[in-house]
Amino acid sequence: MPPLGNEYAAEQLKNAGNKCFKSGDYEGAEGLYSQAVQKNSANPLLFTNRANARLKLEKWEGVIDDCIRSIELLKENMKAFFYLAQAQLAINHPNEALSSALMAYELCTNSAQQTSNAATISALVLKCKKAKWDIRERERVRRRADLLSELESMLETKYKADMDDIEARIETSATTPRIEAQEEKQELKTEFEKKRDDLRTAFAISDPDHLQKRDVPDYLVDGITFEIMHDPVVTKSGRSYERATLIEHLKRSPTDPLTREPLFINDLRRNLALKEACEEFMTANSGWVYDW
């Protein structure tokens, strides 16, 4: 246990960091949170605060380190898992990111940390799953086309080299503001993704049976299991879920998974139009859709 004086000082530094964060001064917030951690390293919330500031600064490894330290201090730590998933996804580790995001979602929906975070975390889970799927799809397509694989590798190599160059300039030059560098990195990412997608489209047109990108529309995916629905029902809030999954949820907690408002089995209504869309999609893509 840190001395009481240190706890008080850490709290004051945290509050000052919060003010910097709210004003958009993420560098200042990170520095103040770091000072707070030095005063009281037993407080898991200080690490999640700093992780959030580092997320804004795209300091991914620092985010991961902070989140792991925070989770070591507090196991049921929704924010830490949520921030951890975002950083893991940013460094292209979708398997780990999906696991972290699912843990955040479970803590959000099954504990006192529920509130309005469920929709945001649900969207992150789906994003992680799609990123994991995209890697599998990329490898599948590459195995079908050696030339495409070679050209994509060249694009990725140049993209990573350009991103590393920006990071090096940030570290060695005081004249390159991090915000300006982040904008430059976003432009590079957008340009890279466009070139990659244009390349894939060209190859897909030449061999549509094997090279067309396969994907599942978000509206067909259940917001609890994140699998394709078979028998969707709609809640009073207008969100649809797989019937069996939602009923199991309501047996444990008679509340809407997202809004947390009271919800009972009798409130559910079949979503016939969505059920038809799910059936059509499953029939048209039965050769691969069960692997999603």
From TrEMBL:
Reactions it catalyzes: S-ubiquitinyl-[E2 ubiquitin-conjugating enzyme]-L-cysteine + [acceptor protein]-L-lysine = [E2 ubiquitin-conjugating enzyme]-L-cysteine + N(6)-ubiquitinyl-[acceptor protein]-L-lysine
A single GO cellular-component term on record: cytoplasm
Domain U-box stretches: 215-288
PROSITE patterns: U_BOX
Annotated GO biological process: cellular response to misfolded protein; positive regulation of proteolysis; proteasome-mediated ubiquitin-dependent protein catabolic process; protein polyubiquitination; protein quality control for misfolded or incompletely synthesized proteins
Xref: SUPFAM superfamilies: RING/U-box, TPR-like
Annotated keywords: Isomerase, Repeat, Rotamase, Transferase, Ubl conjugation pathway
InterPro entries registered for this protein in UniProt: TPR-like_helical_dom_sf, TPR_rpt, Ubox_domain, Znf_RING/FYVE/PHD
One Pfam family hit: U-box
GO molecular function terms noted in the UniProt entry: peptidyl-prolyl cis-trans isomerase activity; protein-folding chaperone binding; ubiquitin protein ligase activity
Key word Lipid metabolism present: no
Endpoints of the signal sequence: none
Protein name: U-box-domain-containing protein
